[in-house]
């Protein structure tokens, strides 16, 4: 897509899964990609920078290596189970919000001096923000907070655009090792309940981030890529 030619795209959480897919797609679309992650790894062709998004000093040092930012994407998240409220301990609660919401806000704040006047910012939530059940309190709450944050920032940071991508069931390492029986069976069961009858791939979801980056009329939106899981 010509709109990304020469653009500087920063992907936080580029070492694996959806973040890696976004970095790869942006690179193929002509962008110069900077991948930030705790693991310090990312796709071929990207400038990979090791940084923990929870640490202001590490993020500031990473951003010092970047001239400007046209598109900022935040996909980092904390591994968390689905405990009911009675089993939700303080550390699990804080960790989930710290990585997915608070760290995102810190990265955006530290990036402000580098963001182009027409830059885009894309955050990541998940369908549990609006799909309710037992054991979904933690993930649902933090995802809902991310979606509200995106809408508020779209007003505060205008004319820069801020959006949120909300993936549903996606075939990533979250569900187990590639090719494992557990991962295959879990995704097959989930896919059978979806209108599209298939689990999404990281590549499917990455296309929504590219849309958010390149469409100048999209801001304050939540882009659902869930195979109809919310229907």
Question: Can you offer a commentary on this structure?
Answer:
The chain is α/β, with parallel strands linked by helices. It has one domain: NAD(P)-binding Rossmann-like Domain (Rossmann fold, 3-Layer(aba) Sandwich), CATH 3.40.50.720. The chain is about 40% helix and about 20% strand. It has helices at about 15-30, 55-65, 90-110, 135-155, 180-190, 200-215; strands at about 10, 30-35, 45-50, 70-75, 115-125, 160-165, 170, 200, 220-225. The strands form two sheets. The chain has a seven-stranded parallel β-sheet with strand order 3-2-1-4-5-6-9, sandwiched between helices. A two-stranded parallel sheet has the order 7-8. Helix 1 (about 15-30) packs across helix 6 (about 200-215) and helix 2 (about 55-65) packs parallel to helix 3 (about 90-110). The longest helix has 22 residues, at about 90-110. The radius of gyration is 17 Å and the shape is globular. The chain starts with 7 loop residues before the first strand and ends in a 6-residue tail after the last strand.
Strand content: 15-25%
**Approximate helicity band:** 25-40%
Through-space gap between termini: 31 Å
Question: How many strand elements?
Answer: 9
Poorly predicted runs of 5 or more residues: none
Output the CATH topology.
Rossmann fold
Q: List the domain count as a whole number.
A: 1
Condensed summary:
By secondary structure, this protein is of the alpha/beta class. It has 6 helices and 9 strands, in the order E-H-E-E-H-E-H-E-H-E-E-H-E-H-E.
């Amino acid at each position: 897509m010509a709109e990304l030619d020469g653009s500087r795209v920063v992907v936080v959480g580029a070492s694996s899964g959806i973040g890696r897919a976004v970095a790869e797609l942006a690179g193929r679309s002509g962008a110069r990609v900077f991948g930030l992650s705790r693991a310090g790894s990312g796709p071929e062709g990207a400038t990979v920078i090791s940084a923990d998004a929870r640490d202001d000093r590490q993020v500031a040092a990473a951003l010092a290596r970047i001239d400007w930012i046209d598109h900022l994407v935040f996909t980092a998240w904390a591994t968390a189970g689905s405990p009911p409220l009675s089993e939700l301990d303080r550390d699990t609660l804080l960790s989930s919000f710290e990585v997915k919401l608070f760290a995102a806000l810190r990265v955006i704040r530290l990036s402000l001096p580098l963001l182009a006047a027409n830059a885009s910012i894309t955050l990541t939530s998940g369908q549990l923000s609006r799909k309710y059940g037992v054991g979904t309190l933690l993930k649902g709450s933090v995802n809902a907070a991310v979606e509200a944050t995106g809408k508020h920032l779209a007003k505060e940071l205008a004319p820069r655009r801020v959006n949120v991508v909300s993936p549903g069931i996606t075939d990533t390492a979250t569900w187990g090792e590639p090719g494992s029986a557990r991962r295959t069976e879990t995704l097959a069961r989930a896919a059978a309940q979806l209108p599209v009858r298939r689990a999404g791939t990281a590549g499917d979801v990455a296309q929504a981030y590219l849309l958010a980056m390149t469409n100048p009329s999209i801001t304050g939106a939540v882009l659902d890529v869930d195979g109809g899981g919310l229907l």
